[in-house]
Amino acid sequence: MSHSDPARRLADALTSACLGLRRGVVAVVPASDAWARAFRGVHEALASTAPSEVLAIEHIGSTSVPGLEAKPILDIAIGVRPGTPSDALDGWLSGLGMLLRGDATDVRRDRMYGYELEPMIRLVNVHVLEYQSRGWQDYIGFRDHLRADPVDREAYGALKRRLADRDRLAYIRDKESFILPRR
User: So what's the pLDDT on residue 102?
Assistant: First the structure.
């Protein structure tokens, strides 16, 4: 990319990538090759400025699985050194235009940020957690399982299509029985 500003490179990577969903809405769309290209651009923008606490940046979630329908939002896991304070990346990520969405909870094991080019239209969810932690391994394990298993990939896509008319929290909750045994 021609821009040296990492925030501009991040925005450029996401433009024309068939991404974006109003916060709180559930919509599942056909897979797009643009998602992998967008992740490569986002990865470049993040990796070129990442602080030393960052050990890995991975594309996770359904947009990381070729051929799988997905909500049109990139999910990215950023693995940090064990013991890194949860707010250690706030300045870096907010400087790139990320919005802090919340800390780890009993339900979610990561600190979460979102990226929007327009208010309330989410393009990226960033999940920050300890590299190689249980949560990290769950994200990577499920992604890798779906990439390798076409039967489960199709079954998961069918489940997501059936659940797409539910509210966001029900959609997330009702996918768990499929996800948990396959991590």
Answer: 86
Helix, strand, coil: what percent of the chain each, to 5?
A: 40, 20, 35
Q: Which residue has the tokens 């998602």?
A: 35
Global pTM value = 0.92
Amino acid at 89: L
At 83-122, the pLDDT tens digits run 999 899 999 999 999 999 988 776 667 999 999 999 999 9
For residue 104 the two structure tokens come to: 């780890």
pLDDT at 107: 63
Q: Are 108 and 128 in contact (CB under 8 A)?
A: no
Residue with tokens 């929290």: 169
Local structure of residue 62 (DSSP, 8 states): G
Q: Please list, residue by residue across 34-59, b when 16 or more beta carbons sit within 10 angstroms of its beta carbon and e when fewer do.
A: ebeebbebbbbbbeebbeebbbebbb
